[in-house]
Amino acid sequence: MTKKSILDIIFFMGILYRYFAREHILPFFLALLVLTFILIMNRIFELVFNIIGKGLEPFIVLKVFVLSLPFIIALTVPMAVLVAVITVFGRMSQDFEIIAIKSGGINLYKLIIPVLIMIILLSMGMVYFNNHILPESNHTVKNLLIDINEKKPSLKLKEGIFTKPFKGYDIYIRKIDHEASLLYDILIYETDKGRIERVVVSDSGMMTMGDNNAILTLYSGEMHELDIKDPLHYRKLSFKKHVITFPMDDDFVEKERSFRSDRELSAKAMRRRIKTVEAEIEKLEKNDGNSAIKRDIERKIKIKQKEINRYAVEIQKKYSIPFACIVFLFLGVPLGIRTRKGGITTAIAVSILFFVVYYIFLVAGEELADRGFMSPFWGMWLPNVVFFIIGASLTQNAVYENSFHRIKRIFTIKKKPGEKIDEDTR
Predict the structure, then answer these.
(1) What is d(CA 244, CA 187) in angstroms, rounded to the nearest whole number?
(2) How far is CA 191 from the centre of its chain?
(3) Cα radius of gyration (the chain)
(4) pLDDT tens-digit readout, 320-371
(5) SS3 341
(6) What is the mean predicted confidence (pLDDT) over 387-394?
(7) In angstroms, rounded to a whole number, what is the distance separating the alpha carbons of residues 35 and 323?
(8) How far apart are CA 28 and CA 23, in angstroms?
């Protein structure tokens, strides 16, 4: 082979690689947009329910919406990879480009190489995203939602459950008539420092808003009071009408809270917390005492061990979900070749189906790892291992299917004149 021929082959493969890699870009971003929109819809309705009527500036509402996106994007990026791969390989299979490439003596794995490089870079970017951008956005949006719930008018009354819309009051309402603004079968616990001081029961009521307060007017009810200083002193009052005024702060103030949960921390910060908790466990194990004290120590150690498991699971999740992009590449190649028709719509449907199964495995693994029935590593990585084995096997079969049939024909027993071939060997 001459030098010119080698250069021609390199030039041709370079064109083919660029073409193949470029084909994945548009389906990926289109799928990312569609899937993010689908998953964010639930969040939009939740935000509208919590924010509407609170008199917030449009910028604050937009800020909450934007800060809610990173959590969704962390899940939709692997899904978008699967959609893009299925779409591209499906179209190429439908247009007989795959057959043409194989006929030209080009191994299908060579076409996967440029896409694999792109997805590896994408996975590395998602690891950085999950460790730096996602924790900060989760922390900020949590603080914003807490501040929003404290702002006028914080009407979070719901049917059939206890809610705490105002400080020091737990309210239960059996039925709410939103059209008439009426409340039915009301139960109110008035508390102070965790102690119940007063219980109010009412047949019906109405909530109205003042300038700086909310006014709850109750009809036909009873009030039960217990003297904390003298528990034997109990008072019961019946009323036809009773008014309770709830003071509220109309100013919206963003507050910074230092406490962070596991989803608001990077992997590095969680490793530091694990070391701190492990040191606390060592101190507890050194304590001696009677059987009651030992039982209390064992209980505390179990609680702290669960805390360690929770942090360890979240650390593994920050790496396992980005790696799913690579897994879905090898799963998407054979699915695309076999799916062919349908375009991006079919690809999205198939991708959602597979990702739902993947996510069920992931959630189950997280639950088992949190409870200590499985190591955090296997709890988060087992779905990737299972799907990678399936995807790699299907890809291998799709790449070498022609060779497989030729090998099968070589070992097939040829029929001799007058001899029947058993159906199992045919």
Answers:
(1) 13
(2) 36
(3) 31
(4) 999 999 999 999 888 888 776 656 677 778 888 888 899 899 999 999 998 8
(5) coil
(6) 90
(7) 19
(8) 9
The Cα–Cα gap between 77 and 122 comes to: 9
Distance separating alpha carbons of residues 346 and 148, to the nearest angstrom: 40
Q: Which pair of structure tokens corresponds to residue 308?
A: 């360690």
Q: What percent of the chain has pLDDT over 90?
A: 24
How many residues does this entry show for the chain? 426
Q: Is 220 helix (H, G, I), strand (E, B) or coil?
A: strand
Say whether 363 sits in a helix, a strand or coil: helix
52-56: average pLDDT: 59
Distances (CA, A) of 34 to 27, 256, 286: 10, 33, 56
The pLDDT tens digits of the residues spanning 278-329 come to 888 888 887 766 666 778 788 888 888 888 999 999 999 999 999 999 999 9
Q: Rounded distance, CA 401 to CA 105, Å? A: 14
Sheet strands side by side (includes 162-166): 162-166, 169-177, 182-192, 195-209, 213-226, 234-247
The rounded distance, in Å, linking the Cα atoms of 186 and 189 is 10
User: Is residue 229 within 8 Å of residue 208, measured between CB atoms?
Assistant: no
Question: Which string of DSSP letters, residue by residue, matches 126-188?
Answer: HHHIIIIIHHHHHHHHHHHHHHHHTSSP-----BTSEEEEETTEEEEEEEEETTTTEEEEEEE
> Which one has a higher pLDDT value, 163 or 321?
321
Residue 247 CB contacts under 8 Å (≥ 6 apart), including other chains? 212, 213
d(CA 62, CA 74): 20
**Where is 216: in which H helix or E strand?**
strand 213-226
DSSP SS3 for 415? coil
Closest CA to 39 of 68, 59, 60, 62: 68
Mean pLDDT of all residues in 160-180: 81
The Cα 222–Cα 252 span in angstroms is 36
Q: Are 306 and 53 in contact (CB under 8 A)?
A: no
Single-letter residue type at 220:
S
Q: Collapsing DSSP states into helix, strand and coil, what is residue 10?
A: helix
Residue 195 β-bridge partners: 192
Q: What is the DSSP string of 71-128?
A: HHHHHHHHHHHHHHHHHHHHHHHHTTHHHHHHHTT--HHHHHHHHHHHHHHHHHHHHH
